[in-house]
């Protein structure tokens, strides 16, 4: 009998959901509040998870990486920067190699472990990303959210339309596209989605939808293709900055993009931030625990499946 797998993953950065911008002060709250909350949830439930750190937050606060090591969690790269201008869908091959190499070096120096798993900031990639990953020693990617539709609410949304046609189960990627199967050698472990993203944001804003999602995903895994459940959450979802007056930062270059990607999206995303996210996340974990799922890191999953 095959054991189903649930891969809980975490993107660690200095993004403030409350202010819709990157802030060192938010990074400090992630270190002191968000990460302890997540680690406590995982320790109580005996879960091993993968944490994707930006090189920026790791260099700024090395303890944010070191604190996961005693628990056996995996250190993965979330690139060097989470700046909108540094999205991997707009960077050249050479710049992607620089960002990947530098982030890998920072994380390996802090953790003492080889870093082979990557997730791009905001899940933005382009045709150069598979080559850049190979040339910098990464073996696993988890930047593709198969069958997910973001409309125009996220940066890189035009390229992300390819998600709708990407394979749903883990696969070896093409040399010129992470969205397609091929012989590249980089293993793609797609994030779970049911047209809508199965992530912490959806869980906090539309809890009823997320309950329906986990039932659908369990049915697919159990009856159709035995795909792993891959969930994405951020430690900054477990912090509360609402005591500070809110000003939504403008990142988009034109007003329609600002309205969709900054203003509307930011107002939606603050629901159930902080302690309210804890019980919602534990509910998701308990659903899969009761159904006998094995919780492991992305690297452990790929090794067990003989993908790497």
Task: Give an account of the 3D structure.
With about 300 residues, the protein is of the alpha/beta class. About 40% of the residues lie in helices and about 15% in strands. The chain contains eleven helices and 14 strands. Strands 1, 4, 5, 13 and 14 form a five-stranded parallel beta sheet that branches. Strand 6 (about 115-120), helix 5 (about 130-135) and strand 7 form a beta-alpha-beta unit. Helix 8 (about 205-225) runs parallel beside helix 10. It starts with a strand and ends with a helix. The relative contact order is 0.18. The model has no long low-confidence stretch (mean pLDDT about 95).
Question: Tags for this entry?
Answer:
308 residues, alpha/beta, TIM Barrel, 5-stranded parallel β-sheet, 5-stranded mixed β-sheet, 40% helix, globular
Write the layout of secondary structure elements.
Blueprint: E1 5-12, E2 15-16, E3 21-22, H1 24-44, E4 50-53, H2 55-60, H3 63-66, E5 74-77, H4 93-111, E6 117-118, H5 129-135, E7 140-141, H6 157-160, E8 171-174, E9 177-181, E10 187-188, E11 193-194, E12 196-197, H7 200-205, H8 207-225, E13 229-233, H9 255-269, H10 276-289, E14 294-295, H11 298-304
Parallel strand pairs: 1-4, 1-13, 1-14, 4-5, 6-7, 7-10
Antiparallel strand pairs: 2-3, 8-9, 8-10, 11-12
């Amino acid at each position: 009998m095959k054991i189903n797998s649930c891969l809980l993953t975490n993107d660690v950065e200095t993004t403030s959901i409350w202010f819709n911008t990157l802030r060192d002060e938010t990074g400090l709250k992630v270190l002191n509040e968000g990460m302890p909350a997540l680690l406590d949830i995982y320790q109580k439930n005996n879960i091993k998870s993968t944490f994707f750190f930006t090189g920026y937050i790791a260099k700024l606060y090395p303890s944010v990486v070191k604190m996961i090591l005693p628990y056996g969690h995996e250190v993965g790269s979330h690139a060097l920067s989470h700046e909108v201008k540094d999205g991997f869908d707009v960077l050249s091959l050479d710049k992607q190699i620089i960002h990947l190499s530098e982030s890998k070096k920072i994380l390996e120096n802090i953790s003492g472990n080889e870093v082979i798993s990557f997730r791009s900031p905001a899940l933005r990639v382009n045709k150069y990303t598979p080559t850049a990953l190979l040339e910098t020693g990464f073996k696993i990617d988890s930047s593709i959210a198969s069958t997910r539709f973001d409309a125009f609410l996220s940066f890189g949304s035009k390229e992300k339309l390819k998600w709708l046609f990407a394979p749903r189960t883990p696969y070896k990627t093409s040399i010129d596209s992470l969205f397609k199967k091929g012989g590249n050698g980089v293993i793609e472990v797609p994030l779970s989605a049911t047209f809508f993203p199965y992530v912490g944001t959806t869980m906090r804003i539309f809890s009823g939808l997320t309950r329906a999602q986990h039932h659908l995903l369990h049915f697919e895994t159990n009856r159709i293709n035995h795909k792993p459940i891959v969930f994405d959450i951020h430690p900054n979802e477990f912090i509360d900055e609402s005591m500070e007056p809110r000003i939504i930062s403008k990142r988009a270059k034109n007003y329609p993009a600002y309205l969709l990607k900054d203003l509307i999206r930011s107002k939606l995303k603050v629901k159930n931030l902080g302690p309210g996210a804890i019980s919602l996340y534990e509910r998701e974990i308990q659903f899969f625990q009761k159904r006998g799922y094995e919780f492991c890191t992305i690297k452990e999953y790929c090794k067990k499946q003989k993908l790497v």
